[in-house]
Write a structure and sequence with these properties.
This protein has eleven helices and eleven strands. It is an alpha/beta fold. The longest helix is centred in the middle third of the chain and has 15 residues, at about 225-240.
Length: about 375
């Protein structure tokens, strides 16, 4: 089973509490090895994606916390004579892939004796955290930028979490939550805490099973903090380690041109992230100027193994409309992957699968 360690000094994650950064050096925590996946250890009688519980690296006795996440459809869409697989993470219980991380996170929080926690989010992670906190009987407070879409804010409040609307861009909500964390309130951060990556990795396991125990030649996903793509990478790594696949897909990470730090890091080095803007974008789910998992993504996805591209606002809008006209109602953040495929498909290995990360019902067009 992999351990959680600080990526800078190597300190092990403590067995008690939920520190979001290393208490020795302030570094980021991450798993130090691929997840362990075994067909012999599947538990098909458990609900949702919990059949993969053995791969979650949970403490002994950690509870199953579920709202029925996982087992999302993989549908194939014709695109100029090619077939693009669409993985419908928008059909998870709260309407986004975040539920895969939240279920494992809630299990970890309960196993560690946490009874209240705070989170910050552009909307989807906050709604997911609020739902799973309610289900696990945890008290939650969620900090969001005041620009977060109305349906996401309504979700958070409906689940019973306290909603804190913070003026300014997404980064201001991240700063505001730290005032509570500094007072000792546990920080259930979907970005900093690595627990949820094990849940997100199940997207890879499901795609592998849905494609007849093969992996796609290319995998496309939106990138904000980077947890979605990194979790999927870790899932395909686990399949390779288990001897169930000979190779990983070619990865494509997609950002909005209005906020594209990982694209800049891929092209010019990690220091180039500092030059990224944090402008308004339809793809609010990826408006993250300082992504926590950028370093891990760049270290694993080198040129030849994948790429990162940015999409202009006009293309996001066009792709959002095109998906809807084909019957797929997703939020604009999800439309990034359709735009990326439109741009890259002639040079991508086939078949490709794109992850639709969030439901269109969470988004209200302003015009």
């Amino acid at each position: 089973m992999p351990n959680i360690r600080c990526v800078d000094c190597g300190s092990l994650y403590p067995s008690q509490g939920v520190p979001f950064r290393c208490q020795e050096c302030g570094g980021i925590f991450d798993y130090d090895a691929p997840f362990q996946f075994s067909l012999d250890k599947l538990e098909p009688d458990l609900p949702g994606y919990w059949q993969y519980r053995h791969a979650f690296a949970l403490p002994a006795g950690a509870p199953v916390v579920t709202l029925g996440e996982g087992n999302t459809p993989l549908l194939w869409e014709d695109f100029t004579g090619e077939k693009l697989g669409l993985k419908f993470e928008s059909l998870n219980p709260t309407g986004s892939y975040k539920d895969r991380g939240s279920a494992v996170l809630a299990s970890q929080l309960l196993a560690r004796g946490v009874k209240q926690a705070v989170e910050d989010s552009s909307g989807n992670a906050g709604a997911s955290f609020a739902a799973y906190a309610a289900h696990a009987r945890l008290s939650g407070r969620v900090y969001v930028p005041e620009s977060a879409s109305g349906p996401k804010r309504q979700q958070i409040e409906a689940y019973g979490a306290e909603l804190m609307r913070i003026p300014g861009p997404r980064s201001e909500a991240a700063k505001a939550v730290l005032t509570q964390v500094e007072q000792g309130v546990p920080y259930a951060s979907h970005a900093y805490l690595p627990f949820g990556l094990a849940g997100i990795a199940t997207i890879a396991y499901e795609i592998w099973q849905q494609m007849g125990r093969t992996v796609p030649a290319a995998l496309i996903a939106p990138v904000g903090h980077g947890g979605l793509l990194l979790g999927i990478v870790r899932g395909f790594q686990a399949l390779v380690k288990a001897g169930l696949s000979n190779a990983e897909p070619y990865y494509v990470g997609v950002q909005a041109a209005a906020c594209d730090p990982v694209v800049r890091a891929f092209e010019h080095g990690l220091d180039a992230m500092q030059s990224a803007p944090e402008l308004p974008t339809l793809a609010e789910g990826v408006r993250v100027r300082t992504p926590v998992r950028a370093r891990a993504l760049i270290e694993h996805i080198s040129p030849g193994k994948g790429t990162f591209i940015s999409i202009a606002e006009a293309e996001i809008q066009s792709s959002y409309q095109q998906l809807a006209q084909r019957g797929y109602y997703v939020e604009p953040t999800s439309a990034l992957v359709w735009a990326a495929y439109r741009e890259l498909h002639r040079n991508l290995p086939q078949p490709a699968v794109a992850v639709l990360s969030g439901n269109g019902l969470k988004y209200i067009p302003t015009s």
